[in-house]
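All the exercises in this workshop are built on plain-text protein records. The record below serves as our worked example for the rest of this section.
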Amino acid sequence: MINEGVDKSKRQFLTSALTVVGAVGTGYLAVPFLSQMQPSVKAMAAGAPVTVDISKMETGQLLRVEWRGKPVWILNRTPEVLETLKSLDSQLRDPKSEESSQPEASKNPGRSIKPEVFVAVGLCTHLGCSPTFRPEIAPHDLGENWKGGFFCPCHGSWFDLAGRVYQGVPAPTNLEIPPYRYINDTQIIVGEAPEEKGA
């Protein structure tokens, strides 16, 4: 017989050793390839949550920050603004924000976790222009029905100071509310919803 003097244990050892060497070599080739698919540090930082200190905000002041390359507005609303919001429902396209993008914690008339502090992505839902902050009441260029809000100069969309869109304008939905949470009474993290941290 031809196979009589063959040591099968050596053959099995060589087969096992080649399998291990092949697996290790495949791993060395795969690691750089797979690491190329990971987002860069710059890309991860661009999408990272942003901590905002609101301790020095005055009543009526609008603070602008950037999150994921988008402008985010933080508005310290006055008690008068909160009262005015209640009277606008008949003029709004989606007064209860049933068709708009917002976290569960902001599904209320003021579209905010705390009534006085409003947080929204500052991009018009029509074509993505950035509306201007127009807190004045009844300016001559916007008319007597204007109770303060955000006006998009690109195509004329109106939003109230809860980011709700008026009827009869190009914007189809209310301003987007990003996920955010409070660390404490004076700090907000934009980019993390309360439920993500058990808050």
User: Anything to note?
Assistant: Residues 1-38 form one domain. Strands lie at 50-53, 62-67, 70-76, 117-121, 132-134, 149-151, 158-159, 180-184, 187-190.
